[in-house]
Every structure is written in structure tokens, then in C-alpha cells.
Amino acid sequence: MMSRSYTNLLDLAEGNFAALGPASGGARRRSGSFGMKRMSRVMTVPGTLSELDGEDESEPAATNSVASDVPSSVSGERLLVVSNQLPIVARRRPDGRGWSFSWDDDSLLLQLRDGIPDEMEVLFVGGVRADIPLAEQDEVSQALYDRFRCVAVFLPESLHDRFYHSFCKRQLWPLFHYMLPFASSASTATSSSSSSSSSAPPAGNGRFDRGSWEAYVLANKFFFEKVVEVINPEDDYVWVHDYHLMALPTFLRRRFNRLRIGFFLHSPFPSSEIYRTLPVREEILKALLNCDLIGFHTFDYARHFLSCCSRMLGIEYQSKRGYIGLEYFGRTVGIKIMPVGIHMDQLQAVLCLPDRQWRVSELQQQFEGKTVLLGVDDMDIFKGINLKLLAFENMLRTHPKWQGRAVLVQIAKPVRGKGKDLEAIEAEIRESYNRINGEFGRSGYSPVVFIDRDVSSVEKSAYYTIAECVVVTAVRDGMNLTPYEYIVCRQGTPRSESSSEVTGPKKSMLVVSEFIGCSPSLSGAIRVNPWNVEATAEAMNEAISLSDQEKQLRHEKHYRYVSTHDVAYWSKSFIQDLERACKDHFRRTCWGIGLGFGFRVVALDPHFTKLNMDSIVMAYERSESRAIFLDYDGTLVPQTSINKTPSSEVLRIINTLCSDKRNIVFIVSGRGRDKLGEWFSSCPKLGIAAEHGYFLRIN
Ligand SMILES: O=P(O)(O)OC[C@H]1O[C@H](O[C@H]2O[C@H](CO)[C@@H](O)[C@H](O)[C@H]2O)[C@H](O)[C@@H](O)[C@@H]1O
């Protein structure tokens, strides 16, 4: 019977389930290159996947529709950056005909190029942030590839909806931010009967929905197919980004056993007690272990991941000379802890834009005589915006000197994802700031200025410049670069300094949640538990009350760190570690084994070869005297079986072997002599080495 866990990725990947209906097949048909056999550029080692798995997936890449005009032999190494979204801004042309594209300078994925060696070409694979109609997709793909070396992934709408809005945003996103789904037993019961049927109702309360998981896997396969279209597996590195694409490494590893694959998780990785509630916990861990290097922002996220590997897969890590590695079937999967940074030049370029000057002056006038505390967050449920408002309200009440003087400007950027419970949070926030403004506001003074629209980089930087303190009260956030951006804006540039906007010594103050990834790097910040509203209120008061000298010292310390640990520093370090992790790749002998998410590559030193069945049989038949040593657990009985007693079939085979006078047969085990003696009492000619050879039964 097919397991409910549906671990056979192949079935999912081939679309053999009802959840997505014909849409996925249609999408595959649209792309001319999918399913095409290609010329082999890489010789696979003997004994690969096809022999062991009974399937022929291991197939090297070559060229495709978008890349067909690119020379097939690209010299030099390239980096393929794969992410849910391309670092591209797409705009419909004003006349409605076609699209115009430009780089998204604010995208971290684009910025990471600065840390990549010049000789390494960077290609991007990902979705386009616009609804490109089906009829225009081919043309758009070609344009993006030709002009930007961007390979566009288009998912059918229904698949995208279930992949992104359902599985990513309603299941993984909350869980990875440490939020457990609260499902009633009734809805759980529905879940087990709904399974992959496309008519299944969407899961409520964040309850796991298998159909959405299947959509996630299938969407990952769409990304994989696009990678295959452009990849040179011998020369290229692949760097996969974030929680949307955690199944992708398995697809890549299955096809290219020795591909060099890195992964960076931008979101948090929750404690194992949270993570273990995910019904596909092993599948995702195993998929990630098909990478060569897995990166996290903080030590805690990495520690959580390692303890999940230990508790759920029984894999222990080793730490050698500062490197953490997981031994996984002969391969070492590196673990990298390195928080991301910002792009200094990009931010400084914004600081030098002419229209910034008047924006800063305008804000200086608007908030003249006021002390501005600033929040810049995405409008999502984990940013703790309401907690910040409550803390601010508390500060105004307990420190009345700030009434009429302190203003909290909160920028809340609208988000794409229809995250869980977002509407309720928005209503709560509205209620809070209306209440605060109602109680403490007066003519010419609104204590809370709430901006819930997209704000340009120029406008944002102007707010940073005039803010005395930035407050981040997220209850969980992978990293959060708001404090870094603020520090750089407060530092200004030599050019901006010549203007009137920042005078005197540079100073800044931060109140940051202890639950965000950037918190450990900001030693001069006042760290708070945002759930403790009173303590956060005190921290806000302290931050804006400190002496200028103290604010200056803290600012200098932060600026030194932020300006040296920028995005290029991060990407350079990641790529260097990826290179190191893969240095033996082409020297080792690799075999792909296992089905679905159980797929992994077994890597061996080149001196090892796989035993060949025909040669074993021939040697057996030729030999006159044979010693046969059999391990017990995992060899004669499956490791996973609860009943450890040898089956009658095993006893029969052992007796057959023992009956041949040319054979000496021994069981070698760590088990005790009594148990082994009892189990094999019907095999009188069998030798037993019990307790690792401490006791011998020789016949
Ligand atoms: O909302 P999504 O499209 O699913 O993307 C998730 C978020 O990605 C980015 O944030 C993540 O990466 C940042 C840089 O490493 C990190 O600071 C943050 O903590 C991560 O969540 C993006 O900045 C967010 O807007 C997206 O919501």
C-alpha cells in the first residue's frame, strides 16, 4: 500500500496525483525543452541511480530554448542563483504592449554579486514579480535571458497559489517562525481523508495540507527544470535561496550526483520541538542534506537544524577547525553560520540623490522639536508592530515628559503573501494607533504616524536620517536589516554631510527584539523581549534619554561592524566555503541511491568500487573454502523492524549456507550470547560471535 507520507518524489514530480489537475501537465507541454534528452557533457560513474533505483533520471544537461544560442562549452565557473523571485522589476509598457524590465537594485540577490569573483558569471533563476500572461511568457523569458541572464520560472496560477500562498505562507512561514498550527481534532480528521485530492478543502488553522505540500514539491520541480536548461554541471555552482525551495536540492542531486550545491535559509529555523510537528519533516531535512553547504543567519538556527538532523535522522555533526559538518553517506554537508549584511554603495548612492535633501528638510520641519522613534517593518504577523505601539503607549503614560514630544513613525510595508491572520493583526494595529492618537494627541501633535504604503528608498532613508532611535519588536525574524540601514543612513556620506541634514557627531540608538537574527551582532543595542511591553517601554525611554556621547559611542561601534560585514562579505564568505566543501567532488566515486526524498548520494574514496554481483557469484562458485561473516541488525533483520527475531526465511538460508562443507558461516554482532543462541538454536552449524566477539560459539 502506498504510504500516506507519499515520500516517492518521483510520483509527485511526474504529476501523478490529482491535486493539481491538468494545469501542471499543460504547463509542462508549454515549455518546449522539458523532457528532452540531451547530449551528455558529464560522464557518470558506473553503478549510478539507474541500477539501484530502477529509474533513469541521471541525465546531464545541455542547452535549451532560452539558452540555445549560448555556446555549449562555457569556459570558467558560473554561479546559478536560484530563488523564488528574480531580482528584476517588471513594468507593463505605458502603451500596454509588452514589458519593460530593470534590475531591482534593492534585491539582496542582485547585491550578492559584489562578493563573487569577477571571473565567475552569475545567472539567476526564479519567478517574475508580475502577472505575465501565458501568451507573452516565451518572449519575456527570452528577453530576460538575453538582457539579464535571468531564467524565468513561470508556474501555472493554481500551482503558484497552492505553492506560495498555501504551503509557503500558511504552513512553512508560520512554522519556521516558531508558530504551531492549532488544528482541532475534527479538522485533523478531515486532513487525513483529504490527502491529495484537488477537491479537498483548504486546511484551516494552518493545519498541514498534503495537497499544498505536493504543490510545493511540484513547484520546486519547475525551478529544477529551468536550472537544467542552463546548467553546466561540471563548471557551475548552484546557490539556492530560502524556504520556498527546500525540495530543489534533491531534484538537482538526483540528476547531477556531483553538482556543487549551496543553500541559504533567510528565515529562522525553529527549535526541533516545533519543527518535529511538520508531517514532512524528514523529507525536508533529507532534501537539504543533498546540498554541500547549508547556511543560516545565526548560531541558534544552525543549532536547531543540527538537533533536528540528530533527533529525526540520527545524524550527528562534527566540528573541526571551526567548520561544522554532517557526515551523510560519505559526503560531508557543511554548515555555515553567517548573517547577511547590507549593500553599502547602494545605500550611500540613495543618500546622495538630490531629491533626498528636500525630503529630509521637509521631515525636519514636520517633526521640529520632536524626538522621532522609527519602525520600518513588513506588514506581517511576526513583526510585532502592535507590541511596539503598546510599548510606546506605555512609555507616554509612565514617562509623561514625552507626551507632546515623542513621535513614533511606523512604516508598514504591504506584503505579497496572504499570510495567516494578517487581517486580524491589521485591525488590532489600527485600533491601537487610533486609541493612542485619541488619548495623547493634540492640535499639531499626533503621537503615532502610521504609514501603510510602499515607501521609496529615498523617503525611507530620509526617515532614518531624522530618527533618534529605531525600534524593532519583531517576535521572530530571520535577520532583519532595518537596524543596519538606519545606522548607515545616520552615518551619512561625505556629500550628505556637506548639506545641512546631519550636523555634529554621528549618533544612533537601537531598541531591538532579542528574537531577530541581527540581534547578536548589535552589541550596542538595547535588547528587549517584545512580549514584555513594560520593559520595552522602559527601553524606548532609555534609548532616547541617553547622553549624546553614549549614543555616539554605540553608533560608532555599530557602524564599524555594519560597514565591514556587508552583503559582499557575506556572499564571498559563503562561496569560499562552498568551494572548500566541494573541493573533492570530482575525485570521489558517487552512487545515487534511494527513492523519492530518500534519495542520497553515497560518496566513496576512489579506491572503493561497488561489488559486482556477477563477479561475486563467479568467485563463490570457484572457491573451495569460504568464510562468511554476517552482521545481524540491519543485515539479517531490517534496522527499523520492531520484531528482531530472525524470520524462518533467514534461518532457512543460513542453514543452506551452513550445509555446504566448503562454508564456515558466522554471525558477528554486538548482541548478547543468550539471545543469539536462542534465536539460532535451529542452526547447529552456525558460528556465533556475540557481544562484538567477546563470546564465541564455534561449531
Ligand atoms: O514573503 P516572501 O516572498 O515569502 O519572502 C520572505 C521574506 O524574504 C525576505 O526576508 C528574508 O530575508 C531577509 C534577508 O536575509 C531577512 O532579513 C528576513 O528576516 C527574511 O525573512 C524579504 O526581505 C521579506 O520582505 C520577505 O517577506
Features:
alpha/beta; elongated; single chain; HAD-like_sf; 25 helices; glycosyltransferase; 6-stranded parallel beta sheet; 9-stranded mixed beta sheet
In DSSP terms, counting alpha (H) and pi (I) runs of 4 or more, how many helices? Answer: 25
The order of strands across the largest sheet is: 5-4-1-6-7-8-11-10-9
Q: Please state the CA-atom Rg, rounded to the nearest Å.
A: 30 Å
Q: How does the helix and strand content classify structurally? A: alpha/beta
Report the span from N to C terminus.
43 Å
How is the main sheet built? 9 strands, mixed
Protein name: Trehalose-phosphatase
Family: In the N-terminal section; belongs to the glycosyltransferase 20 family.
Organism: Triticum turgidum subsp. durum (Durum wheat)
InterPro entries: Glyco_trans_20, HAD-like_sf, HAD_sf, Trehalose_PPase
